[in-house]
From TrEMBL:
<dbReference type="GO" id="GO:0098627">
    <property type="term" value="F:protein arginine phosphatase activity"/>
</dbReference>
<protein>
    <submittedName>
        <fullName>Protein-arginine-phosphatase</fullName>
        <ecNumber>3.9.1.2</ecNumber>
    </submittedName>
</protein>
<feature type="active site">
    <location>
        <position position="14"/>
    </location>
</feature>
<dbReference type="InterPro" id="IPR023485">
    <property type="entry name" value="Ptyr_pPase"/>
</dbReference>
<keyword id="KW-0378">Hydrolase</keyword>
<comment type="similarity">
    <text>Belongs to the low molecular weight phosphotyrosine protein phosphatase family.</text>
</comment>
<dbReference type="InterPro" id="IPR017867">
    <property type="entry name" value="Tyr_phospatase_low_mol_wt"/>
</dbReference>
<keyword id="KW-0904">Protein phosphatase</keyword>
<dbReference type="InterPro" id="IPR036196">
    <property type="entry name" value="Ptyr_pPase_sf"/>
</dbReference>
<dbReference type="GO" id="GO:0004725">
    <property type="term" value="F:protein tyrosine phosphatase activity"/>
</dbReference>
<feature type="active site" description="Proton donor">
    <location>
        <position position="120"/>
    </location>
</feature>
<feature type="domain" description="Phosphotyrosine protein phosphatase I">
    <location>
        <begin position="2"/>
        <end position="146"/>
    </location>
</feature>
<dbReference type="InterPro" id="IPR050438">
    <property type="entry name" value="LMW_PTPase"/>
</dbReference>
<dbReference type="Pfam" id="PF01451">
    <property type="entry name" value="LMWPc"/>
</dbReference>
<feature type="active site" description="Nucleophile">
    <location>
        <position position="8"/>
    </location>
</feature>
């Protein structure tokens, strides 16, 4: 099983949406049993996914109703095969937590061959959440070939 962890700040918006979108992408490709996806935050408490993230994912046919945020741990980083962060700052934080794992930590944009961060919609309008989900989806589609290749090497 190839394990992917998405990382953002509070684990209520970006990383749970990314995890849901990638899980769906893997299922449609027939790889649901080969790729395990989870998410965590670098400053997370135990909270449900934000209302905006839940609404946008529901509109996409996905469900975050049972998601509760969790704090990123060293064990989670060590057990992951690929760590995808929403921003460069998240990447730097994850790399500082586990210096020996820097080779498997990327920003989502970086893995997609793009520059920049996934914009945080926290506290914003549903349109901002929808735009964030669209940005994540575009990055995932661009990175999909690399993800499949990496998963196939495990």
């Amino acid at each position: 099983m190839f394990k992917i962890v998405f990382v953002c700040t509070g684990n209520t918006c970006r990383s749970p949406m990314a995890a849901a979108l990638l899980t769906e992408l893997a299922a449609r490709a027939g790889l649901a049993g080969s790729i395990h996806v989870e998410s965590a935050g670098i400053a997370a408490g135990r909270q449900p996914a934000s209302a905006g993230a839940q609404a946008v994912m529901r509109q996409a046919g996905l469900n975050l109703d049972k998601h509760y945020s969790r704090q990123l741990s060293l064990a989670q980083l060590q057990n992951a095969d690929l760590i995808l962060t929403m921003t460069l700052a998240h990447k730097q934080t994850a790399a500082s937590m586990a210096p020996g794992l820097a080779g498997k930590i990327y920003t989502l944009a970086e893995l997609a061959g793009q520059a920049g961060d996934v914009v945080d919609p926290y506290g914003g309008s549903e349109v901002q959440y929808r735009n964030c989900a669209r940005q994540i989806q575009q990055y995932l589609q661009a990175a999909w070939g690399k993800i499949v290749t990496l998963a196939g090497k495990k």
